Amino acid sequence: MAETMGLRERKKLQTAMRIYRVAVALFVERGFDNVSVQEIADAAEVSKMTVFNYFGTKEDLVFRPMEEHFGDAARAVRERQPGESAVAAVRRQFLEMVESRDPSIGLNPEPISRQVRELVRETPVLMERAFVAAQKGTRELAGLLAAETGDLMQATIAAATLSAARNALIEEHHRRIAEGVSPDRVTADAAERARVAFGLVENGLKDYGVKQ
Q1: Cβ 117 vs Cβ 133: under 8 Å
Q2: Given pLDDT bands bounded at 50, 70 and 90, which one contains residue 205?
Q3: What are the residues whose beta carbons fall under 8 Å from the beta carbon of 143, sequence distance 6 or more?
Q4: Which residue, of 11, 157, 188, 193, has the greatest Cβ tally within 10 A?
């Protein structure tokens, strides 16, 4: 993306990424509540006002680069082609993200996405914001499906199920890497795991968990 930007836009992106990486490093080292915006500005060699111009709030320093991804499933459904089901659209998008090793699904070899995930899990105010953002994404998806089908209840169930499948896959990526499996190895079978997960959603749960 940077290749298509002008010089001014590239410099702005570089500044934003420098501030973001510095902030995450400080938060990981000392804890979110123990780092001030002024300290982040000093470490990134910018003014405090520059930090706020780029990120708005201290919480945005963690969430701004990834918050749009809470709406990925809704975006996939909104942009799908005629004749493509909601499950197929979300699955296709997820497989594309696997192929590109998108950081938002935990497959990028750089550790920063996993550091951010642990930071959020360890910080109540960030966990609350993550929960609210995730719920907003699921409600957006449900609203799109309800508008198309006219049945809010079924749309809500479908949206929750699709969101749960995506979240389970992402958690699996993070869990395996945290246990010492290399990102390359996790990526190698991520597509097959995604096909299995979305196949379960697509085919329903009628044959799942039958007690023997």
Answers
A1: no
A2: low
A3: 155
A4: 193
